[in-house]
Amino acid sequence: MAKKESVSTRNHRISPQPRLHQRANEIQKYGTVEHLLPLELEEPVRLEMTEQLNQLLADTITIRDLYKKSHWQVAGPTFYQLHLLYDKHYEEQNEIVDKIAERIQLLGGVSLAMAADIAETTQIERPPRGREEVPVQISRLLDAHQVIIGQCRKLAKRAQTIGDDGTNDLVVSDVLRAHELQQWFLNEHLTNVPLVEAENPDAAA
After folding, report:
1. Is residue 11 part of a domain?
2. How does residue 198 score in pLDDT terms, banded at 50, 70 and 90?
3. What is the pLDDT of residue 6?
């Protein structure tokens, strides 16, 4: 016959009182991978991919936040257009952040998350706290895109070489193509063309 559980034991386990300030050891260390799913990818492959994806994640979070900074602080005649464009690109980058982080977890790794860890890891130059002119904002964003585009090309080729087709597809389809499109939109804002009146070639002669 099963031993009847005492009221005091039950009350210790189940209580309406919140158990606050809890701490415990990590369930998985950063930089390791767990065997979560039968992915047919060896541990060294998953270790390498999660490390490189975390670098891509840190840089993607940084450019995402750089877009939000620019969105808040933009000023000048193109305020309205850029205010909307920056926020659109921010939202698109936010979706990419989630996809990269989930890929890392799917591979059995641990994704970076906190701002301090991102700041320590990113390769993108840190901007000042204050407001900058529009051409400087755009130039900073274009430099950040260049960092990530170069990284994507190398990571995609490496993933294909070692047989991680899922990471290759993510990097090319979701990350690289989005960055190529966003940098094109930004590039056009730095083209020095007349705004209202076209230059008359006959006048110069």
Report:
1. no
2. confident
3. 53
Q: Residue 79 and residue 44: Cα distance in Å, rounded? A: 48
What is each CA distance from 98 to 93, 116, 119, 120, 121, in whole angstroms? 9, 18, 18, 20, 18
CA 80 to chain centre: 25
CB-based contacts of 140, cutoff 8 Å, min separation 6? 66, 70, 125, 127, 132
How far CA 53 is from CA of 17, 171, 203, in Å, comes to 41, 9, 55
- The predicted-structure confidence for 5-33, as pLDDT tens digits, reads as follows 555 555 567 888 898 999 999 999 999 99
The total of structural domains in the chain comes to 1
User: What are 37-46's contacts with CB under 8 Å, separation 24+?
Assistant: 37/106, 37/108, 39/106, 39/107, 41/107, 41/163, 41/164, 45/162, 45/163, 45/164, 46/107, 46/108, 46/109, 46/164
Cα(34)–Cα(106) distance, integer angstroms: 10
Residue 108 near residue 36, CB atoms below 8 Å: yes
Q: Global pTM?
A: 0.88
The CATH number for 90's domain is 1.20.1260.10
Residue 9 CA, chain-centre distance (Å), reads 47
Boundaries of domain holding 48: 40-190
Residue 22 resides in a domain? no
Site of tokens 């995609």: 156
- Give the pLDDT of residue 35: 75
Q: Tokens for 125? A: 């130059």
